[in-house]
Structure formats: C-alpha cells, structure tokens
Amino acid sequence: MTWVTTNGSLLTLSRALAWAGLILIFMAFGACHLDASPAESQLTHLVWLLLFAWVLPLSRTIQPEEIRFTAVMVILFSAALLSAWLAGDLKVEGYFRPSFIYLLPVGLLGVLSLFRMRKGWVVSGLLFAASMAFIVIIKDLAFGGVRGAHHGLAIPYGIFGLTTGLMCLLFAMDKSLRREVRMLLLAGAVCGFAACIWSQTRIAWLYAILWACAFPFFWLSFSRISARRIVAMVVVTVLALGIVYVNRPMVLERTDEAISDVTHYLDGTDKNTSVGQRLELWKVAAHTFAEFPLLGAGESGFVTKRDEMNASNEVFVRPNLEHAHNDYLWLASTRGLLSLFFYLVLQVGLIIFYWQHVRSPVTRYAAFSGLTLTAGALFYGFSDIFFSVKISIGYYLIAQMVLIRLLCSESKLAAPESSV
C-alpha cells in the first residue's frame, strides 16, 4: 500500500513538472516578443532546464519528424563546436557559447513528447506572443522610444511581430475554431503587423509583400473559391494597408533611406551606411570562405580577415561589426560548407514536411504556418542575422517543434491520447 501511494504521488509530481515545462516553453516564446535581454537569459537556462523531462517516469510518443529535426540541430551544434575548436574560439567570450542554443530541441522534445499537442494551446501561445509585441509599442509611446526600443533588438522584434502576426492570420482562417477565437486571432495578427511596421524592419516589410503576393495563390489552389473567402481576403488586405497608411511617413522614410544607401554605395561616395556596411561585410565573408571552405575560419577568423581587408583598404567596415549580416555567408565563412549543407538540409526537410500536410483541411493552416516560418527564416537570412542570434534561433526552434508536434497530433500520427 505504501509503495502504491508513493508511486501515485510520483506520477502526480511528474505530470505537474511536465505541465510546468510546457508552460515555460510558451512563456519563453512570448518573452521573445517583449524584451530581448531577459528572453535570451530564459532561453539559455531553458536549454538545460528542459532536459529534466527525459527522466520523468511518464510514457511518451516521439515522431520520426521530431527525431530528424532534433538530430540535424545536434549535428549543427557539433559542426559549430568543431569549427570553433579548430579556430581556437572555444575560450573566446561570446564566440561559441551562444551555439548551445542549437541543443534546445533536445529539451523541447523531452517535454513535447509527453503531450498530444492541441490547437487551442498553439492559438493561446500565438495570442500571448502577439500581445507582448503590442505592449512594446505601448511602452515606446508612453515612455519614449522608437523601433521597439523597449524590446532591445529592433530587427528581431520586427521579424517576430510579422511572423507571429502571419501565423495568427492563418489560424484565423481555420473554421474548426470558434468564431470568437478567430476574431481574437485577427486582432493578434493586427498586433503583429503593427509591431513589424513600428520596428522599421525593412527585410520584414519586403517579406510581408512577397508573402501577400504568393499566399492567395496557394490558398485558393487548395480551397474552394467562394464569395466569403474573397471578402475575407479583401478585409485582411484593407487592414494591412490601413496599418501601412497610418505609418506611411515612417515607411517612406525608411524606403528612401535604403534607396539612397544603395546609390551612394554604387557611386563610391559613402560605404558607411546600413546597406553599404552589409555589402562590405559580404565581401569579407566571401574572402574568408575562399580561404577556409570546408570547416570555416571561426568567428575570430572572420574578424581577422575583416581587419586585414580594412588595413589594405579593400573594404571599409566599422570595427564594432563582427557578423556578415547574411546567414548563408556567415555559416560558410565561419563554419564552412559542412554547417551550411546541414542548415539547408534542415530547411528543405521542413518545407517538404509542411507541404505534405497542406492538402488536408485538418492540418492545412498549421502547415501554412510552418511554411511561412521556414520561408521567412530562409528569406531573412539573406540580409540579416536571423539564424545567428540566440533569441531568433530560440524563437524559431520553439515555433518549429510546436508546429511539428501539432501536425503529428492533428494528423493522428501521434498517440490518440496525451500521456499527461
């Protein structure tokens, strides 16, 4: 009798800890939209804290897609470790330690495998995150600040706002959800879009335009065309244009600034601009990759090459810039073709996985959300440091693991009932 009582108490405690882990995951996802510094601290601790889930005496179900995703991230971590070791970066503060975030899926899988993911949980997480992004705007307006100053990282803030807003919009189209929930999701989409505009993140604006051009084609290809659907698309378009119109001076100013930067760079009059510095950093990355193609030169090697090219007047790069501002060139130059290959394998595998679930009405909008997230990461990487900043990687990994789990659960690939 004593053993039975003790065993029952242990199971109750284990279930409580599993739920605590799930709540921490969604809280960390929301925190990415609110304040960069504490969010990065949470993600740092979450990498190790979530590992406790693997020792909980509870049954779990793990899908092949989850194993593959986690395995590729572990490979990317191992490749980063190898490159850093060869370059002598392991003991350099700030060079290798952020790469531990690549191991976050191990803990995420430990927790998520204990649950059958519910669509309502994902919706709640998105609404929470969108509201956090909107709070930053309120704080900026109330206490003084621009571009999400109270967040701390304007570009990731804008990217998170747009991506979360688009996912809210996609789930708002899901008729299996109650009308009240869908209305809340539309409000969440507006909050996300507002954060994107407020952040003045041009790469996110460009992705929003491309997404708006491409998505209706795919959506109507898999859905029956009806007057209601057309009206819904028009309403969403009007809302988005309304947000842009309200902020048109800011949008026009940032657009003119980008055009001016390109013009000055091409005629050689000014390289010390936002666009000019990116192009100069791309040169440094290309030269670094040419010398160390297989495993890269490490972050210290990139900085050394930057200083050499600055000294020889081949480029003009400000000394505080230590990143290529291009995920592909950054991976190639600091970690070589090995890491770049597995990064592309990860993204292509995700696109294939999500595309397979688009045709089913049950999983369509979650799959479209996954495609939006993955395509966004690929697009942002051309001009920014999306997959090189801890907070961006953490946001991406949590969103991907949750969506993969949801799709497996919704398509009845996971166990029929939650084990918790």
Structure description:
72% of the residues lie in helices and 0% in strands. With 420 residues, it is an all-alpha fold. The chain has one domain. Helix 2 packs across helix 4 and helix 6 runs parallel beside helix 8.
Please provide a brief summary of the model.
The protein is mainly alpha-helical and 420 residues long. Helices cover 72% and strands 0% of the residues.
N- and C-termini, Cα separation = 23 Å
Number of domains: 1
Helix content: over 70%
Number of helices: 15
Unreliable runs: 1-5, 413-420
Number of strands: 0
The 3D shape can be described as: globular
Helix and strand succession?
HHHHHHHHHHHHHHH
- Average pLDDT rating: 90
Radius of gyration: 22 Å
Supply the helix-strand structural class. mainly alpha
Question: Which helices and strands appear, and what pairs or packs with what?
Answer:
Blueprint: H1 2-31, H2 36-49, H3 64-87, H4 104-112, H5 119-143, H6 154-172, H7 179-199, H8 202-222, H9 227-246, H10 248-266, H11 274-291, H12 298-311, H13 327-358, H14 364-380, H15 390-410
Helix pairs in contact: 1-2, 1-5, 1-15, 2-4, 3-12, 3-13, 4-15, 5-6, 5-7, 6-7, 6-8, 6-14, 7-9, 8-14, 11-12, 11-13, 13-14, 14-15
Features:
disordered N terminus; disordered C terminus; mainly alpha; 420 residues
